[in-house]
Design brief:
CATH class of the largest domain: Alpha Beta
Strand content: 15-25%
Low-confidence stretches: 1-25
Largest sheet: 5 strands, antiparallel
Number of helices: 23
Structural class: alpha+beta
Distance between the termini: 65 Å
CATH topology of the largest domain: Beta-lactamase
Number of domains: 3
Shape: elongated
Radius of gyration: 35 Å
CATH superfamily of the largest domain: DD-peptidase/beta-lactamase superfamily
Strand order of the largest sheet: 12-11-19-18-17
Length: 665
């Protein structure tokens, strides 16, 4: 390759070469010959102009060629030295792009650090084989200096030599291995003091990631870490010295964030020691792109604190909260609790801290917002209502009777909450009071096989496509899925679909029905916006080094999941659930904006002596303002008791958004 260097081209060398060029010309005789003319004055003047132009053009060309020769000669010289191991090429790490919220608030930083590398050429013979004895000796010496700090970066390896072997085996091209991402001054001094015992070990200044808001954003941003052998095998844009995104948006958009490394050439002696403090820049590094998110960090912090307090107040196992823009799928806030501090993982997490996190029964590493698959309870009735209306199975005025003592044809009991008897109900009333019997009657007079395609359009049992790793698909309540479960992971299930029992349990969000909080937020958004099932997303705009911006676009999953009339009627039912005389979510009424919502108290666990479930999840999903929907709020409390608990939290969120001018009526 041709090397071009931007430093150390000596001015004196350029001057001497210019003098040599100049000395070849006898300007006196040249002028005398040119201007001897037998023509008139005009002819002499013209020739003078031509001569001066050609003279300066020639001199300029000679100077450029001379300087280019110097540059090329220097490059060839350094290339020759490189071939003869007199020059070593090392990477100049690129600046990793950082995250901002939608308003330009910084969400991640790059802080100075010292990194330790091993250059493998010191351990390779003429056949490119590693001198295992020398490497093992160095590994032991370096390990004694680093202590356990190197393991923080390389938890999958038992020794430094094992890490080097593993990475070398995966890619023979890479001749340097990053051992540890961040060391302190004391360790750096010890490494330099033992340089003779550590061939090929060197320290370079770099940067490490830090996250100012830690636990508040850890499930969204994720964290970075050193490249592993597995990473080298999967990713074609990294090498053995890179730091890459391991989880979250750091992983999802790693290729845009990581940037492009530059190269620096160093003159070395026969023992590989640098001969000068300053190297030659072969190629400049190119910084990674910055990424602006859809997140509003102030709302995110408020959601986190409300969720933290709610989990504690209601003795829940955990929970999630999401605020989504119904017009485009942008996520303004998304919290999973309990959380973890992603700063602990930067540069590698200690075994003590890692064990503490993974052994926590509350599972703080799980992003409940996108991966908690739970029965949705009565929130599911909004999908069933819109689907049945669209299919013509019911109308707004279709009436069924809610009564105590309701049974299936085989005599099995089925009841409304607390065995209430609500009497004659139309659809709006049924949504308002959340009647199980009404929706059971709907599916008994319709057909589960006809409902399933609608459920799929609403996103049940499929991924939303949100741009953060780790999403779960939920589970579609279908006869086929019940059969599959009975024959695999749930052998206690009866491998038969009962048209009454299974269908009625499914339409009220029980049975085998499972959804994630992000799915619920997304289908509520589609109901609110008139039928568009958007792709929820967290990334908004990329910005490069030149401050040029690139807005990201995400195509809708479905542009029309049901008719406008069907969705309008469903929205009316949700409004009445909050604001109507028969509604059961009055806690969300009386705000400066009108809210429409649906709750769910989803049963799970063991049955008590009365045949009732001992545990319930608390759900609420809402949109606002009602007349001109802008946002959806979905809150989930895992094992959080009655749905009223999540409703109280929702009121606090909406009130804060109003007070801080995020919404107006």
């Amino acid at each position: 390759m041709e090397l071009k260097f931007s430093k150390k081209i000596k001015y004196e060398e350029k001057r001497k070469n210019f003098v040599k060029v100049r000395s070849k010309f006898n300007f006196t005789s040249l002028f005398r010959d040119i201007f001897k003319s037998e023509g008139g004055v005009e002819e002499n003047t013209l020739w003078r102009y031509i001569f001066v132009f050609l003279l300066f053009a020639s001199l300029f060309t000679l100077l450029i060629v001379d300087l280019s020769d110097l540059q090329i000669a220097k490059g060839k010289e350094m290339l020759s030295k490189s071939i003869n191991n007199q020059v070593k090429i090392r990477k100049i790490p690129a600046y990793r792009g950082v995250f901002f919220d939608r308003n330009g608030n910084l969400l991640s930083q790059n802080s100075p650090s010292m990194k330790v590398y091993i250059a493998l050429e010191h351990y390779l013979d003429s056949y490119n084989m590693i001198d295992s004895e020398l490497l093992e000796k160095t590994s032991v010496t370096l390990g004694s200096i680093l202590g356990d700090s190197w393991k923080n970066d390389s938890e999958e390896y038992n020794s430094i030599s094992e890490k080097v072997y593993s990475i070398y085996k995966e890619s023979l091209y890479f001749k340097e291995v990053l051992i540890v991402s961040d060391i302190n001054d004391d360790i750096a001094i010890k490494i330099k003091a033992n340089a003779d015992l550590l061939p090929g070990v060197y320290i370079e200044n770099g940067s490490k990631r830090s996250y100012p808001d830690g636990v508040v954003l850890s499930h969204i941003l994720g964290y970075t870490g050193n490249v592993s052998a597995e990473d080298l095998e999967k990713l074609n844009y990294v090498d053995s010295t890179d730091v890459i995104g391991k989880t979250g948006l750091e992983q999802e958009y790693d290729e845009r964030l990581i940037g492009t490394s530059g190269e620096m050439a160093w003159e070395v002696d026969a023992l590989g020691r640098t001969l000068s403090k300053e190297g030659y820049v072969v190629t400049e590094p190119k910084a990674g792109d910055n990424l602006y998110l859809t997140i509003d960090i102030n709302l995110q912090k408020k959601l986190y604190n409300i969720m933290k307090n709610g989990v504690k107040t209601y003795s829940a196992a955990g929970g999630a909260a999401i605020v989504e823009d119904v017009t485009n799928g942008e996520i303004l806030g998304m919290v999973s609790y309990p959380s973890y501090d992603n700063n602990l993982f930067v540069g590698g997490i200690s075994q003590k801290n890692y064990s503490k996190i993974v052994n926590d029964k509350r599972n703080p590493l799980m992003n409940r917002a996108i991966a908690a698959q739970m029965p949705p309870g009565s929130t599911f009735k909004t999908i069933v209502a819109a689907s049945a209306l669209d299919a013509g199975a019911i109308t707004r005025d279709t009436r069924y009777v809610s009564r105590s003592g309701y049974t299936f044809s085989n005599g099995a009991p089925f009841q409304d909450y607390m065995n209430h008897a609500y009497g004659v109900l139309n659809l709006i009333d049924a949504i308002s009071v959340s009647s199980n019997i009404y929706f059971c009657e709907v599916i008994r007079h319709w057909d589960m096989d006809k409902l399933v395609p609608y459920l799929e359009k609403f996103g049940i049992g499929t991924y939303t496509g949100i741009d953060v790793p780790g999403e779960a698909p939920g589970r579609l309540p279908s006869p086929a899925n019940k059969m599959a479960l009975a024959n695999t992971t749930s052998p206690w299930l009866d491998p038969v679909w009962y048209p009454e029992g299974d269908s009625c349990n499914s339409v009220i969000g029980q049975g085998i029905t499972l959804v994630t909080p992000i799915q619920m937020a997304n289908w509520t958004s589609a109901i609110a916006n008139g039928g568009t099932l958007n792709t929820p997303h967290l990334a908004k705009t990329f910005e490069n080094e030149a401050k040029e911006k690139e807005d990201l676009s995400f195509d809708p999953i479905y542009k029309k999941i049901a008719s406008s009339d069907a969705l309008k009627t469903t929205r009316e039912g949700m409004w009445n659930a909050v604001n109507g005389s028969r509604g059961n979510i009055h806690t969300l009424s009386g705000l400066k904006v009108q809210v429409a919502a649906k709750t769910g108290t989803a049963e799970f666990g063991k049955l008590n002596e009365k045949g009732e479930y001992e545990n319930t999840h608390a759900w609420v999903t809402a949109f606002f303002p009602y007349d001109n929907p802008k946002y959806v709020l979905t809150i989930f409390l895992e094992d959080g008791g009655e749905s009223i608990n999540s409703v109280r939290m929702a009121r606090e969120v909406v009130s804060w958004m109003i007070e801080n001018n995020l919404i107006s009526n």
